[in-house]
Backbone:
């Protein structure tokens, strides 16, 4: 069975749907990019997948033994979060908080996991630096390492390169692609449709028209050709 199976999902606020009759699946090893116009409901969908928001109707089924504590989440960063006064190591280690339960201290294994994920994100050399003093690209690597401490199987990313310059964006996409090749299933919202079709295995395009399928079929579809020729699609 799929990790996630979404059936006839309707999303919105106060009972008013902004997206209806959504159907798609996410299997182990997939790299799914969610694209769409402004206000199409991309972030709302991600919050619903994380059970941070209830759908109006429809179902989200999990399979293959997927547990909620095996999903990592990297939301869009706020201005307040960028100024957080903690060390890189402290922030990455905080990704293990869900494992603490009734404990007050991190175990040796959890500390080793944080070190391992800092190594994966190539930030061990700045582990003792204050997060607020880092560049935007470094901060995103820290938050990605933190999310990896919570993710065993799936990583959800909401516009992970927003505000980064082109060079750093390419580096970030490269890191995410490496994680996918290492076995982490990726679900990522992106307004950069060219990057989406470069790195993803599957595309979910939501809006006035909905597409779900492989990126190869998306590129050949009339919807994909229209948006690829237009360049980037919107945020939100």
Residues:
């Amino acid at each position: 069975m799929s990790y996630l199976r979404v059936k006839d999902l309707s999303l919105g606020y106060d009972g008013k749907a902004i997206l209806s009759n959504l159907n798609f699946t996410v299997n182990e090893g997939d790299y799914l990019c969610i694209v769409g116009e402004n206000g199409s409901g991309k972030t709302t969908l991600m919050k619903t997948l994380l059970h941070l928001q209830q759908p109006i109707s429809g179902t989200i089924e999990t399979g293959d033994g997927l547990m909620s504590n095996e999903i990592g989440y990297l939301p869009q960063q706020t201005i307040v979060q960028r100024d957080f006064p903690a060390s890189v190591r402290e922030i990455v280690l905080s990704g293990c908080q869900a494992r603490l339960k009734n404990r007050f201290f991190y175990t040796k294994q959890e500390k080793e996991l944080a070190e391992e994920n800092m190594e994966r994100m190539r930030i061990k050399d700045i582990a003792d630096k204050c997060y607020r003093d880092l560049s935007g690209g470094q901060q995103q690597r820290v938050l990605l390492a933190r999310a990896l401490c919570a993710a065993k199987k799936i990583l959800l990313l909401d516009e992970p390169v927003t505000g980064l310059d082109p060079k750093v964006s390419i580096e970030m996409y490269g890191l995410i692609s490496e994680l996918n090749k290492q076995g982490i299933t990726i679900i990522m919202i992106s307004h950069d449709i060219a990057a989406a079709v470069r790195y993803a295995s599957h595309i979910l395009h939501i809006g006035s028209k909905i597409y779900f399928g492989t990126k190869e079929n998306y590129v050949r579809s009339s919807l994909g050709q229209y948006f690829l020729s237009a360049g980037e699609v919107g945020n939100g």
About this structure: The beta strands are 4-13, 16-26, 31-36, 57-62, 71-74, 154-158, 185-189, 202-206, 211-214. The longest strand covers residues 16-26.
